[in-house]
Amino acid sequence: MKIVQYTTSFFLLGFLIISCSEELTKKVETEYSNGKPERVLFINASGITLKEQQFFDNGQLRIEGKYDKEGRRTNMWISCFDDGTLWSECEYLKDQKHGVNRAYYPNGKLRFEGHWENDEQVGTWNTYDESGTLLDSKVFPEK
């Protein structure tokens, strides 16, 4: 009997989580002359943009990230090369770089990595060459 109660509770919780997620409307803000989208916004029922995607004219993702309800960058923002390969990723909080920041070479190898706190570099930042060898390491004071 307890298994049935736990299973039922699990499914109810999952249903509530799914049903409470916000429905977003996709709006193509700008297009290239070839008809492919350049900038796409995802807007909630209150008219607030909560996500943005930008694309290259070949259709590959250029930039993607989320906004909070005040219109400020939040969470992880990513940028890609025109072939779709990840170029960089950076965390934001209230429109400021806050968290991990990594950039990559076109071959996928890590170019640099470090952390931000309120738009200021903190901790150890490492830079690598295209083969993955550490080139430089710099330490910034913690805030």
SSE topology sketch:
Blueprint: H1 2-20, E1 25-31, E2 37-43, E3 49-55, E4 61-67, E5 73-80, E6 86-93, E7 96-104, E8 110-117, E9 120-128, E10 134-140
Antiparallel strand pairs: 1-2, 2-3, 3-4, 4-5, 5-6, 6-7, 7-8, 8-9, 9-10
Description:
By secondary structure, this protein is mainly beta. It has a single domain, classed as Outer Surface Protein A, domain 3, CATH 3.90.930. 13% of the residues lie in helices and 54% in strands. It has one helix and ten strands. It has a ten-stranded antiparallel beta sheet with strand order 1-2-3-4-5-6-7-8-9-10, with no helix packed on it. A hairpin with a 5-residue loop joins strand 2 and strand 3. The longest helix has 19 residues. The N terminus is likely disordered.
Overview features:
Outer Surface Protein A, domain 3; flat; 10-stranded antiparallel β-sheet; 13% helix; mainly beta; 143 residues
Radius of gyration: 20 Å
Task: Write down the overall geometry.
Answer: flat
Q: What amount of the residues lies in strands?
A: over 45%
For the record, what CATH class applies?
A: Alpha Beta
**Largest β-sheet summary:** 10 strands, antiparallel
Helix and strand element order? HEEEEEEEEEE
| CATH topology name | Outer Surface Protein A, domain 3
The main sheet orders its strands as 1-2-3-4-5-6-7-8-9-10
Beginning-to-end CA distance, first to last residue: 53 Å
- Tally the helices: 1
Q: What number of structural domains do the residues give?
A: 1
Helix content: 10-25%
The stretches of 5 or more residues where confidence is low (pLDDT under 50) are: 1-19
State the CATH architecture.
Answer: Alpha-Beta Complex
Average residue pLDDT: 89
**What is the β-strand count?**
10
